[in-house]
């Protein structure tokens, strides 16, 4: 194989992801998920996630190497998510990455999970233009980003003031009796529903002082109130139509603000990343609204939107080829990490 081979490790939440990128091309993307073990608790239990990572990580690395047709000694660099995420879960990945880096004698890049969610798009749609707007929508984050220099220079334009978009999907799904994680179930249920059954609030849609910020906790409260009132009145709740109406409210405000951020920044490319970017209605509405404004839309395939190791390998590959200094072996693993810090370097 020509060009550097980078192995990426992702363990920030409940997916153990191992990706291999060779010369900028995706060769393997192995994912082992503990979501079924988490489902009965209705959320991610950190200790269960950490233990599941411990069990899954070595076999996942072996499978990824087999799929890519390489042996570990062919790897030129290791990249690993060092934050943000659950510390116990992150530690499994970072400890493995440090051991591999020392054992193989190759550089190590401790990367930012959020930046990786944006840069992963390059694996499918080629290099990012010099300036793009990133809409990052996951279970833990909802942010609008100014992304420059192929993802190596990221600035926060705005973010959620309370719940993340994925969190809103998950919490409202729970109110509707749908399984965890609720986002994909809401998406599925909504396909059979009437999105205009209820006009739920679009948080901060017209608040100029929070032009690029989001708020979804009011939506969750409005849905709870609506369900309580309907139940009290003896009306049956049509779950697909409530799911569709909620999805419409979330997707509407996300796309309006993302396009406004493009116009404001004078950029004509929008990248959407993170688990919620797998949402079918978000993909359709974003495309329609981008087309109407002459904005090019880039959204990775759903499997690259939810947490995976390919995104970490993609960012590691970019850092390596751009000559960015490797991370020190004693880098910290922390639950929070500012999106503008793309990878950990010696302070
Ligand atoms: O990026 P991700 O896999 O993990 C985090 O970094 O948080 O995102 C997970 C989130 C969950 O809240 C999940 O419900 C949501 O993404 N999600 C979806 C869909 N697929 C995943 N939300 C709406 N529609 C989907 N199809
Ligand atoms: Zn994520």
Name of the level-1 CATH class of the largest domain:
Alpha Beta
Q: In the CATH hierarchy, what is the architecture of the largest domain at level 2?
A: 2-Layer Sandwich
How many β strands by DSSP?
10
What is the strand arrangement across the widest sheet? Answer: 3-2-1-4-5
Ligand types? 5'-O-[(R)-(carboxyoxy)(hydroxy)phosphoryl]adenosine, zinc ion
Helix content: 40-55%
> What is the number of helical segments per DSSP (H or I, 4+ residues)?
12
Sequence of secondary-structure elements: EEEHHEHEHHEEEHHHHEHEHH
In the predicted model, the low-confidence regions spanning at least 5 consecutive residues are: none
Tally of separate domains: 2
Proportion in β-strands:
15-25%
- What coarse outline follows from CA principal-axis ratios? globular
CATH fourth-tier homologous superfamily of the largest domain: ATPase, nucleotide binding domain
Helix and strand topology:
Blueprint: E1 5-10, E2 15-22, E3 25-33, H1 35-39, H2 46-68, E4 77-83, H3 87-104, E5 108-112, H4 113-119, H5 122-125, E6 131-137, E7 142-148, E8 153-159, H6 165-175, H7 182-190, H8 217-232, H9 239-265, E9 269-273, H10 280-293, E10 296-298, H11 302-305, H12 310-321
Parallel strand pairs: 1-4, 4-5, 6-9, 9-10
Antiparallel strand pairs: 1-2, 2-3, 6-7, 7-8
Helix pairs in contact: 2-3, 4-12, 6-7, 6-8, 6-9, 7-9, 9-10
Bound molecules: 5'-O-[(R)-(carboxyoxy)(hydroxy)phosphoryl]adenosine and zinc ion.
5'-O-[(R)-(carboxyoxy)(hydroxy)phosphoryl]adenosine is lined by residues 13, 138-140, 166, 169-170, 181-184, 186-187, 274-276, 278-279, 306-307.
């Amino acid at each position: 194989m020509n060009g550097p081979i980078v192995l990426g490790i992702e363990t920030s939440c409940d997916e153990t992801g191992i990706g291999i990128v060779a010369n900028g091309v995706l060769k393997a993307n192995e994912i082992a998920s503990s979501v079924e073990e988490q489902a009965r608790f209705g959320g991610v239990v950190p200790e269960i996630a950490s233990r599941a990572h411990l069990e899954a990580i070595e076999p996942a690395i072996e499978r990824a190497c087999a799929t890519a047709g390489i042996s570990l000694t062919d790897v030129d660099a290791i990249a690993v998510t060092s934050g943000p995420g659950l510390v116990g879960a992150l530690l499994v990945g970072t400890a493995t990455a440090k051991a591999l880096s020392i054992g193989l004698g190759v550089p190590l890049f401790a990367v930012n999970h959020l930046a990786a969610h944006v840069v992963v798009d390059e694996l499918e749609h080629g290099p990012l233009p010099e300036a793009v707007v990133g809409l990052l929508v996951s279970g833990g984050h909802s942010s609008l980003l100014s992304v420059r220099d192929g993802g190596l220079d990221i600035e926060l334009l705005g973010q959620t003031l309370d719940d993340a978009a994925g969190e809103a999907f998950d919490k409202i799904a729970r109110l509707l009796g749908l399984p965890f994680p609720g986002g994909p179930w809401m998406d599925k249920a909504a396909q059979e529903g009437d999105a205009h059954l209820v006009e739920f609030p679009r948080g901060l849609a017209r608040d100029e002082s929070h032009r690029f910020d989001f708020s979804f906790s009011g939506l969750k409260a409005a849905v709870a109130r609506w369900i309580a009132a309907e139940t009290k009145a003896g009306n049956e709740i049509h779950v697909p139509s409530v799911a569709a109406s909620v999805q419409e409210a979330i997707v509407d405000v996300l796309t309006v603000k993302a396009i406004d951020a493009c116009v404001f920044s004078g950029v004509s490319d929008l990248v959407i990343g993170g688990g919620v970017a797998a949402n079918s209605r978000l993909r359709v509405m974003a495309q329609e609204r981008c087309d109407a404004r002459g904005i090019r839309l880039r959204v990775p395939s759903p499997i690259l939107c939810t947490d995976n190791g390919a995104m970490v390998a993609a960012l590691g590959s970019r850092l390596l080829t751009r000559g960015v200094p490797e991370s020190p072996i004693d880098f910290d693993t922390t639950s929070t990490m500012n999106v503008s810090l793309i990878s950990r370097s010696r302070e």
